[in-house]
């Protein structure tokens, strides 16, 4: 299904996770979440971005039943996570941020244990398929303590998938993971999404969100400050830059160009023009005309678009 | 009820026993055998009988109880403490499992291990001294009840402890002294009257006494008092563990 069409279908369905007025204050007095409202659509990949201490892990912890909420409600697939915790938790798989595994267990035993813990009947075929998908099959009889960090991360993912969850939380999945495994995980996440699993990931790697997410949420100081379709976010908040390489360096810009708010870069050999993609007119035509009128010639030009990271940093600066 | 989850936790804990067979089974059996050598053979040879029971046989219920208490606490406290220490507790807390099912899995496994150990120690003891059990059903009842109660107590210690030192604190500084002073190796009638009164405040006395009664038909305190004390301790532990889960004590922030 094409992303736009999929997004419209997801938006029309009831949310698979609904967070209402959720707050969390720890016994130390630290308020980790402030009146959070969030709805996750069925079958989407949702990236939750935020700096350290923003409340990402606390939010995930509450939804998964690890942290107690101070106020508010959360439902997973229509089941309240407190009153109807069995049905709610049975839908959810969690891959934690830390590499917390049973050192002395074998891969097969620990993944089978997870499936049993979630009340599912043994299904060696499913465990085998999961281990093969995660390239763990040849390690199935190895003790976890003998595995590398990347392999342990795969084991955690296998454990989370052992009971065939409808919702998968990946808390910083790429932390300490090499490029190959990251690519493998991205492939796996897309496969899961295509099979109907809703994936919520928190990440420090903006490129991960940019690469995979359908929607992006930004959390800062315990508050959700933005939830947006990734493509829409980049369209709305994305800025483009036009860089002109000058034939002769400039000491200063002529006053006739003040309206364009140009920047002189690289010792006066480059002119940088930043424009908003949302504007009806970019102003490039007028700029080029005025440059010619001012006698400023250039030998080359290039454009670049702001990344999700630039947008993210910009949003946090605005809030600071 | 999530029976499969209970089975998974129980199986996981039992698998740990087989992995650590030397520590779990063999070590307690060896140390109990040493008690027999020291108390039964060396000292026991100078004490003919206690309440008409040969001293070697007299100490068997106390020795079994000593192992039962210490191993129940050790197994259950480590069982729940280690996932907390390593962080793997996240999986238990995020699973569709009720507190009762969690307790059943961990405490059930710890109690099973202790009962198996108690049975092995009894078998070992029978190699050293002739043993008779007058009330086998009561003996089994005391064995199971004590193992379950102290496994639950160990589970509470495992939740309470925030370091390996605390994990050892209660077993070493409280339970072992109480067991030694609870008539494991003597009858309270052998004590001066003042100490006899003090000993009556030791809950372990009631466990050892009841267990010994099931073997020889003789007890320091009435069987009813032994059962009542065990059930009271079990009730106290259940109330405490319920409060711990209700408040998320040391489990959920």
**Beta-strand residue percentage of chain B:** under 5%
Q: Categorize the overall geometry of chain B.
A: globular
Number of E strands of chain A: 14
Question: Mean of the pLDDT scores of chain B?
Answer: 87
Q: SSE order of chain A in H/E notation?
A: HEEEHEEHEHHHEHEHEEHEEEHEH
Going across the biggest sheet of chain B, name each strand in turn: 1-2
Helix content of chain A: 25-40%
Write a compact overview of the structure shown:
The complex is a heterodimer of chains A (320) and B (253). Helix content of chain A is 35%, strand content 27%.
Question: What keywords describe this structure?
Answer:
heterodimer, A: 320 residues, alpha/beta, Rossmann fold, Alpha-Beta Plaits, 2 domains, six-stranded mixed β-sheet, four-stranded antiparallel β-sheet, 11 helices, 35% helix, B: 253 residues, mainly alpha, two-stranded antiparallel ribbon, 2 strands, 2% strand
Describe the structure.
The complex is a heterodimer of chains A (320) and B (253). Chain A is of the alpha/beta class and 320 residues long. Chain A folds into two domains: 3-235, P-loop containing nucleotide triphosphate hydrolases (Rossmann fold); 239-306, Alpha-Beta Plaits, CATH 3.30.70. Chain A is built from eleven helices and 14 strands. Chain A has helices spanning 3-12, 56-64, 85-90, 107-117, 124-133, 149-161, 179-194, 206-212, 230-237, 284-293, 308-319, and strands at residues 17-25, 31-40, 45-49, 71-76, 79-80, 92-95, 167-171, 198-203, 215-220, 223-229, 239-246, 263-265, 270-276, 298-305. In chain A, the strands form three sheets. Chain A has a six-stranded mixed β-sheet with strand order 6-7-8-3-9-10, with helices on both faces. Chain A has a four-stranded antiparallel β-sheet with strand order 2-1-4-5. In chain A, strand 7 (167-171), helix 7 (179-194) and strand 8 (198-203) form a beta-alpha-beta unit. In chain A, helix 4 runs parallel beside helix 6 (149-161). The two termini of chain A are 39 Å apart. Chain B has 253 residues and is mostly helical. Chain B has one domain (3-247). Chain B has helices at 3-19, 21-43, 55-86, 89-94, 99-128, 136-160, 164-180, 193-199, 203-216, 223-247; strands at residues 49-50, 53-54. Chain B has a two-stranded antiparallel ribbon with strand order 1-2. Chain B is globular and about 60 Å long. The model of chain B has no long low-confidence stretch (mean pLDDT 87). At the A-B interface, helix 3 and helix 4 of A face helix 1 and helix 4 of B.
